[in-house]
Amino acid sequence: MLLKFTKMHGLGNDFVVVDAVSRKVFFNKSQIERLSDRNWGIGFDQLLVVEPPSNPDMDFRYRIYNSDGSEVEHCGNGARCFAKFVLDRELTHKRVINVETKRGAIQLRVIDNGLVTVDMGAPSFVPADLPFSAELNDGLYPLMVDGDDYLITPVSVGNPHAVLKVDTLQDEQVQNLGAKIESHECFPSKVNVGFMQVVNPAEINLRVFERGVGETQACGTGACAAVVAGIKQGWLAPKVTAHLRGGDLHIEWAGEGEPILMTGPAAKVFEGQIYL
Ligand SMILES: N[C@@H](CCC[C@H](N)C(=O)O)C(=O)O
C-alpha cells in the first residue's frame, strides 16, 4: 500500500502525520519501527494518526505512537502539529478543535500568529496514576539508580514523567541516567525523564529523555510536567518559559485541579509517499 504522509515538527520534535479520516490506515509495531528509522525509513520521534471521532461531541480522534512502535496517551508538540495538519488539509475550518486522545479529551486553540495553545488537562502527582511504585507523599521521592539516590517529582500529564532538578545540564547525565530511569523497575509502564535547570521563577532550561524514543529536541508534555513540578515545589511562578533544545514553550498552570495550558509553534517540513 502506498502511504501518503506529512512530515512536521514542533520545535524539532518530529512527526509523520497520516490522514486516516479520508482513508482508513492501520499500522503494526514493526511497520512503525521501520518507518521511524532515520537511515532505513522516513525518520521521526512519533507517528500521529488522525482519525474520525468515536464521540459526536469531538471533532477528531488522534493516535500517537513512539518510534519504538508503542502507543502512548499524549503528545504536546504533536497536538499542535495535529491542529496545523487538520487546518492545512481543510479537514476542519474550526480554530478551536476538540480531540479524543488515549489520555481523554483535549482542546486545541489556533491563535492568529500561527501558534497553538493546548489545554492539556489537569496534572496528577499521585504515584499510582503514572504508575510509579511508591507511597504517596507531598514532595520529592528518592529513586535509587546504580546505588545513588536521585530526587524526582513523578507527574502524570496523561502520560508519565519523572522530573529531576539539576544544577547543570550534561549530555552524559541526560542520556545515561535518562535511559536508566526510563526503564527503572519502579515505573512498570516506563517513564519520560525531564532534567530541569531553574534559571529564575519564570524560566527553565529543560532536556527530556523520552520514553520509547531517547532524547528529543523538545517534549511538550515534558515541559508541562517540569513546570507543574516546579510550581508544586515552590521553585516556579504560574507562567513559565521553558527553553528546550529546539526552542521555547510557554506554560501556564494556576494550581491543583486546574488544566495546564501550553503554547508553541507547529511547522510542516514536507509531504511524501512511501510503500508500507
Ligand atoms: N514528544 C511528546 C511526547 C511523546 C510521548 C512520550 N514519548 C511518551 O512515551 O509518553 C510531547 O511533545 O509531549
TrEMBL record:
Site feature (Could be important to modulate the pK values of the two catalytic cysteine residues) residues: 161, 210
Is the keyword NAD in the record?
A: no
* GO aspect biological process, one term: lysine biosynthetic process via diaminopimelate
Q: Name one GO molecular function term.
A: diaminopimelate epimerase activity
Q: Which InterPro entries does this chain map to?
A: DAP_epimerase_AS, DAP_epimerase_DapF
* Gene Ontology CC: one annotated term: cytosol
Subcellular localization, per the record? Cytoplasm
Site (Important for dimerization) location in chain: 270
Chain sites annotated for binding substrate: 13, 46, 66, 76-77, 159, 192, 210-211, 220-221
Q: What is its main location?
A: cytoplasm
Active site: residue positions: 75, 219
Stretch forming the signal peptide: none
A Pfam match:
DAP_epimerase
Membrane-crossing residues? Answer: none
Its UniProt pathway annotation is: Amino-acid biosynthesis; L-lysine biosynthesis via DAP pathway; DL-2,6-diaminopimelate from LL-2,6-diaminopimelate: step 1/1
Which terms are listed as keywords in the entry?
Answer: Amino-acid biosynthesis, Cytoplasm, Isomerase, Lysine biosynthesis
The protein's annotated catalytic reaction(s) are: (2S,6S)-2,6-diaminopimelate = meso-2,6-diaminopimelate
> What PROSITE patterns does this protein's entry cite?
DAP_EPIMERASE (PS01326)
Top-level lineage group: Bacteria
Q: State how it assembles.
A: Homodimer.
The function of this protein is: Catalyzes the stereoinversion of LL-2,6-diaminopimelate (L,L-DAP) to meso-diaminopimelate (meso-DAP), a precursor of L-lysine and an essential component of the bacterial peptidoglycan.
What family is it from? Belongs to the diaminopimelate epimerase family.
What is the recorded name of this protein?
Answer: Diaminopimelate epimerase
